[in-house]
Design a protein that fits this description.
heterodimer; A: about 250 residues; B: about 1050 residues; Beta-Lactamase; five-stranded antiparallel sheet; about 10% strand; FLCN/SMCR8_DENN (chain A)
Chain lengths: ~250, ~1050
């Protein structure tokens, strides 16, 4: 069953955007269809873009890939900015989560299932950012099962729901923790442009100076997307193994 | 009016008149009924319960003074008494069935999900509310007291308006709960979301949390027809049920479908009356006011009370009980076959059953096991509506049988569950290697060598210097309470002294544990067959004490188990003195000498093995027994467990010329002795709740490694493909893709190149739906036991019939331990032929064939009941002539009987071999104990003195022991193994075993295990027993051999002479 995990974000300027999507390919090869060709980065603002770790050589990295072996079968897990094979589906999912549903960004899970969006398990969270609208940036971590068999995909989710909730909470908690550390550091350095500071507060005033901030900047962790990729890979591969070995392990 | 109401409640016709059998259980049943009557504060519900009352009062069979009635359909699980089942279960059985004795009924992850919002629980008021409304009858806490609500809402076309919705129906089961505190405007947002959306007509189902209320809302959004207003059905339940809702998603979807049908019909009816259609089809012409485009009536409950009632009833009786039962029914933990402790314990339980329950007429259990191995094990996997149902009036016996059967079933837990059978039995680990759980941390006593194997439960009250009796054990058997605290006492342990050792804290033993799942004094049971004898007579199950009486008597046909009729008298024991040393009559006696102190004689090394004490003087034992026969409990209580307090004397076994298929007589003799082994199960400290195992530790560890990845810092030094400083590599781009950063996942591997974390995660967290004895039959569970009643079989078949909507064939294995019957019920659907009749022919008198016309009447439901076993013999040698496709069973009916015999013979042979292993290792155990207990030399000596005076035990102290004196084994002698070189013994007559386990295999496994032994953290080095390896070799090998046998048992295909046709 096709599963993928995505991190998406509601951009002040662009609306719902995918930041990173990790997908699986069961036939790992050099010409993996999940790998993205070179694409221009100009159309992305800083908060919407997937920051790959800086590489000394001038390489334009567009994908991250991990290959794991399962029963002598190589499965590749690829994280990219967008999904070339599920572009519409992913767009529809993030539009639904951010725009059509009244999402609450408090790490409570939301599950929705229909013929268009398939089964999705969404966990929303927000990070404090004085440069964003409402002083917070909103993100969603989504686990999706791309299958038309509603019952079966729900079975898969139900069999692993604790694992998924737990796994998502770990990553989100980690990001929030990094953000808190970063905020504390900035506060100590006096660089925090806090709107709630009574003297020069911009609270409830027009804030014309909203600027895009990337997740790597908010968390001060250049490797945050690599960690996300790794964690998604771990979750997906575990789920894959779990549902494939369910009945192969009696004896 | 009454007739009208009865017509309105669709399920009232299904009211079960069989509740006479449940009348004794007024309190719990009334809980159930009053919940619905008292808590439904709305008119419709009151009407509904009123109709039920009316129905029952019209039923002459029902005691009208009782409020005891059953309002539910047969497929509706009633689960309110689940926790009571656990309350009265001993820890040993809990360890066996659940892996732990601390079952959480909460899903912490879900319950804590909103902690960051500092959410206050708002669902705290219901209990008080309930108590107020239900004046005289206390409500069970397990009821769905949190309340639930149903909403049916329509979104009007004016989406951007504030009032763009209309609640057509609202129902809340308990008033004043958080559900009613949701503001309607919020409700609209949660249900419909943002008004700005894509206009598609897809049907959506969603589950979401409602902030600050502790509720989840499950919503189905649909359209009456394309372009019409959006309609929503939604129900709210407390958030703890999230997981359960996902698990019964099939039922949830079905419920939504049904309600959707009701609503669509309602709209159609309404449209026929009001000619609304024109308005709908011309949405632009909105000249007719706001109501012009409204599909739903303003108030369904007033205008369409019948439909409203159906909707509510459907939820209340179909869905909510399912959700609740999934949530609250504890599921079995499936021990892996690699767990030696489990395997030993399992064999012991099988032997106990064979000895005590099956007795002379063995065959029931082996045939049952054979039947399960033959096809039901696979059927259970294939279809979740295949079930094994044990119908028994005795919960304890049923649970023991469930433990035995669950050993055969899968899927098993894949992680490591390791009992340390060596120096201390308190160390074990589950899950990932890196996280062994050490009991030492949790124990007040740091001296691990003192653990009596009888007391190695996690929460034991072991105290090295505490010479007093362990109060946790003495409630069930007097001899178990005895503690020999010094050598003088041991050597002077004469008959006169024993009474003073017994029943030290009987009063405490009678205490009913107040709190479930905690360390309590009264519920520890580590000694299997001693356990569970005393049950509080106040135990409430779904069946009356008459049932217990019934099963206790009837299940003893041909055996010796009946407590009060066949109880061995003192004189019997005296007569048996010389000859019955091997009969197991007083195998339990030696536990008298068990001690919880470090002066323990037998359990001294806490090896986790059942010590045997066969070198005790027989006369000594007999006299001790005689003195112990005084503190009997009244039969009404002790009969609760069919297991007698003392062993059963083996009489007239050997001379019976039984020419049955299986020569059980000899087998029964050889099984006798096994009751002396008692491998205790220990608390695995599983992080689990009722349904799931927690995998948090694995996730924690994996995340730690990923987040602390330091090589990531080196990424910017990655130059090209070849850079040794980091595992990160860059694949250069080509015409298809740009450059790729290859991210290694090596940090998920263990530091020491052990198995990757990824290897350990492959277990599912969700446990299979196997459960223990339930007060009511629950169709959601595949293995269960429930009370036997006149209607119980009917309930099973009725629920099977309901499954036929989705399945073509449904199988159920009915097991009746009381009457020793095994039946296979197969229900299948068959389309009627052109003649309107389906041709059914049967020539088997053992097969009951019924034909039921299913509701749509184009299909015929065929019910076949095959009696597999009854009256002590296999019945269905010739299957019925199949009228339906039996291909799914993979076994043609003609060969079923023969194959079953093959399987049963094979299982019996394996059990015999296991028995031999037990017996051959028994003697050496005691020797090694003697050899290694240097600290307790005085005690040992004293017991040795006692032992050496007994001629009967002379043989057992020798290295090479033959066990022929136990009883003749058909045509062969079983060679017991010596202590130094234990071999796997093979019964030469067991010709049906095509592939006996080769000695090489055993030795190879042994090698594996000895290497595994090294992996075990060497805390055992602190123990004296580790100083002498001879102590360790025996149990280790025994465990290995048993494991090999168990594996063989689970893979009978490998050993059968005729391979199963596939």
């Amino acid at each position: 069953m096709d599963m993928f995990i995505s991190l998406s974000h509601f951009c002040d300027k662009h609306g719902p955007r995918v930041l990173l999507v990790t997908q699986m390919n069961f036939n790992s090869s050099d010409n993996d269809p999940l790998l993205l060709p070179d694409y221009p980065l100009e159309s992305y603002c800083d908060s919407c873009i997937l920051h790959f770790p800086p590489v000394s050589t001038k390489q334009d990295i567009r994908s991250m890939r991990s290959v794991l072996t399962h029963h002598n079968h190589q499965i590749s897990f690829v994280s990219t900015q967008y999904s070339s094979i599920r572009y519409q589906l992913l767009s529809s999912i993030i539009r639904k989560t951010f725009s059509e549903e009244t999402m609450i960004y408090d790490m409570t899970p939301m599950i929705f299932q229909d013929d268009i969006n398939k089964l999705n398990f969404v966990m929303g969270f927000k990070l404090h950012d004085e440069n964003a609208r409402g002083n917070e940036r909103r993100y969603c971590l989504t686990f999706s099962i791309d299958s038309t068999d509603h019952l079966q995909s729900m079975q898969l989710l139900s069999a692993n729901i604790d694992f998924i909730i737990n796994g998502f909470q770990k990553m989100i908690g980690y990001i929030k923790q990094l953000r808190d550390v970063q905020l504390n550091t900035l506060a100590k350095q006096g660089q925090l442009d806090d709107n709630l500071t009574p003297i020069i507060s911009t609270y409830l005033r027009g804030n014309k100076t909203k600027s895009s901030k990337n997740l790597t900047c908010l968390t001060n962790d250049k490797g945050i997307f690599v960690k996300l990729h790794k964690w998604n890979t771990f979750l997906l591969s575990s789920l894959y193994k779990k549902c494939h070995e369910k009945y192969e392990r009696d004896e | 009016m009454l007739a009208h109401l009865l017509r309105k409640s669709p399920n009232s016709s299904l009211i079960n008149p069989s509740n006479n059998s449940n009348n004794s259980n007024i309190s719990s049943n009334s809980n159930f009924s009053t919940h619905y009557t008292n808590n439904s504060n709305n008119q419709a519900s009151n009407l509904y319960s009123g109709s039920l009352h009316a129905k029952f009062h019209s039923n002459a069979n029902v005691d009208t003074s009782s409020v005891n009635f059953n309002t539910t359909d047969t497929n509706i699980p009633k689960v309110y008494a689940q926790n009571h089942m656990l309350d009265h279960m001993y820890d040993d059985l809990k360890f066996k069935l659940f892996g732990t004795n601390t079952l959480k009924d909460k899903n912490d992850r879900i319950c804590n999900i909103q902690t960051e919002n500092k959410e206050k629980p708002t669902m705290t008021n219901p209990p008080s509310l309930i108590r107020r409304t239900s004046s005289s009858l206390s409500l069970s806490n397990e009821r769905f007291q949190d309340g639930f609500g149903v909403f049916i809402v329509e979104e009007t076309a004016k989406r951007m308006s504030r009032c763009s919705y209309r609640i057509a129906m609202e129902y809340v089961s308990i008033k004043g709960t958080a559900i009613q505190k949701i503001r309607p405007n919020e409700l609209k947002e949660y249900i419909f979301g943002s008004p700005i959306r894509l206009s598609n007509s897809t049907q959506t189902t969603k589950i979401r949390f409602i902030p600050t209320s502790g509720l989840i809302m499950v919503t189905r959004l649909f359209y009456f027809e394309a372009g019409s207003n959006r309609l929503a059905i939604c129900f709210c339940v407390p958030k703890k049920y999230l997981v359960a809702i996902c698990e019964v998603w099939k039922q949830v979807s079905l419920w939504f479908d049904r309600i959707q049908d009701i609503i669509i019909n309602l709209i159609k009816n309404r449209g026929a009356n009001n000619n609304y259609r024109s308005f709908v089809l011309s949405p632009c012409g909105g000249n007719n006011g706001d109501n012009s485009e409204i599909l739903l009536p303003v108030d369904i409950r007033n205008q369409y009370p019948v439909e409203a009632e159906r909707i509510i009833t459907c939820l209340k009786k179909m869905l909510i009980p399912n959700i609740e039962s999934i949530y609250i029914t504890p599921r079995l933990f499936m021990y892996p076959t690699t767990s030696k402790g489990f395997v030993e314990s399992w064999f012991i339980d099988v032997f106990n059953w064979l000895e005590i329950k099956d007795g002379n007429k063995m065959g029931f259990l082996t045939v049952l096991m054979a039947k399960i191995m033959m096809d039901f094990r696979d059927l259970l996997k294939k279809s979740d509506v295949t079930r094994i149902v044990i119908l028994s009036g005795n919960p304890v016996v049923a649970n023991k049988l469930i433990f035995i059967l669950s050993g055969l079933l899968g899927p098993k837990y894949k992680g490591r569950v390791e009992f340390d059978t060596m120096g201390n039995s308190n160390l074990l680990s589950i899950g990932h290697k890196k996280k062994p759980y050490n009991f030492k941390d949790h124990l007040p006593n740091t001296n691990n060598t003192n653990y009596n194997h009888n007391n190695n439960n996690n929460h034991n009250h072991n105290n090295a210097n505490n010479a007093s009796f362990d109060s946790i054990n003495n409630m069930r058997q007097p001899s178990e309470t005895g503690t020999v605290t010094s050598s003088e006492e041991a050597s002077n342990a004469t008959v006169e002294q024993f009474p003073s050792l017994t029943m030290h804290s009987t009063s405490k033993g009678w205490e009913i544990p107040k709190k479930r799942g905690t360390t309590n004094l009264a519920s520890i049971s580590s000694n299997e067959f001693l356990g569970d004898v005393i049950q509080p007579s106040s135990f409430k199950s779904g069946s009356s004490s008459l049932h217990h009486l019934f099963s206790s008597i009837s299940s003893q046909t041909g055996s010796h188990g009946s407590w009060f009729s066949k109880r061995p008298t003192i004189s019997q024991h005296m007569q048996h003195t010389p000859s019955t040393i091997s009969s197991g009559s007083y195998d339990r006696l030696p536990s008298l000498f068990r001690s919880s102190s470090n002066t323990s004689i037998f359990g001294g090394q806490g090896s986790g093995q059942g010590r045997t004490f066969s070198n005790l003087s027989s006369s000594f034992a007999t006299t001790a027994l005689a003195s112990f026969s005084t503190p009997q409990q009244s039969p009404s209580i002790s009969e609760y467990d069919d297991y007698p307090w003392f062993g059963t004397p083996s009489t007239n076994n050997s001379n019976t010329n039984n020419t049955e298929l299986f020569s059980y007589n000899n087998g029964s003799l050889s099984y006798k002795k096994n009751s002396k082994y008692n491998f205790p199960m220990v608390n695995l400290q599983l992080e689990r709740n009722y349904q799931r195992l927690s995998q948090e530790s694995i996730l924690d560890e994996a995340f730690d490694r990923i987040s602390k990845d330091t090589t990531m810092e080196l990424i910017d030094t990655v130059d090209n493909q070849n850079d040794s400083s980091t595992d990160y590599k860059i694949t250069m781009g080509n015409e298809n893709h740009a450059s790729v950063l290859e991210v290694p996942m090596r940090d998920l591997d263990d530091d020491k190149n052990e198995e990757s974390i990824l290897e350990g995660i492959s277990d599912t967290e969700q446990l299979p739906r196997y459960t223990i004895f339930q007060p009511y039959y629950n169709g959601l569970f595949q293995l269960q036991a429930c009370p036997q009643g006149s209607e119980s079989e009917h309930k099973v078949t009725l629920s099977m019939k309901q499954e036929l909507y989705n399945h073509s064939e449904v199988h159920t294995l009915l097991v009746l331990p009381g009457t020793r019957e095994i039946k296979e019920v197969i229900m299948s659907k068959k389309s009627l032929t052109e003649n309107g009749k389906s041709k059914i022919c049967t020539n088997d008198s053992n097969t009951d064939l019924e034909s039921l016309i299913s509701p749509n009447s184009t299909e015929r439901v065929i019910l076949r009941t095959k009696r597999i076993f009854g009256n002590g013999r296999i019945i269905s040698n010739n299957g019925i002539t199949p009228t339906t496709n039996l291909a799914s069973t993979a076994i043609t009916p003609d060969t079923t009987g023969g194959l079953l015999v093959d399987y049963a013979t094979l299982i019996e042979d394996i059990l015999k071999q296991a028995n031999d292993i037990f017996m051959s290792t028994s003697t050496s155990n005691i020797l090694s104990t003697n050899n290694t207990n240097n600290d307790n030399n005085n005690n040992i000596t004293s017991i040795n003195n006692l032992a050496s005076t007994a001629p009967a035990t002379a043989a057992s102290t020798a290295n090479n022991t033959t066990v022929q004196d136990i009883g003749p084994i058909t045509g062969s002698s079983v060679v017991a193994t010596s202590m130094a070189s234990p071999h796997f013994t093979q019964n030469s007559t067991t010709a049906t075993i095509a592939g006996p386990i080769a000695r090489d295999d055993i030795s190879s496994i042994r090698d594996d295990l000895s290497s595994l032994k090294d992996d075990i953290p060497n805390t055992r080095d602190d123990t004296p027993s580790a100083s002498n390896d001879t102590c360790n070799v025996e149990p280790m090998n025994r465990g290995l051999q048993l494991q090999a046998l168990f594996t063989k048992l689970l893979n009978p295909e490998l050993s059968l002479p005729n391979p199963i046709p596939t």
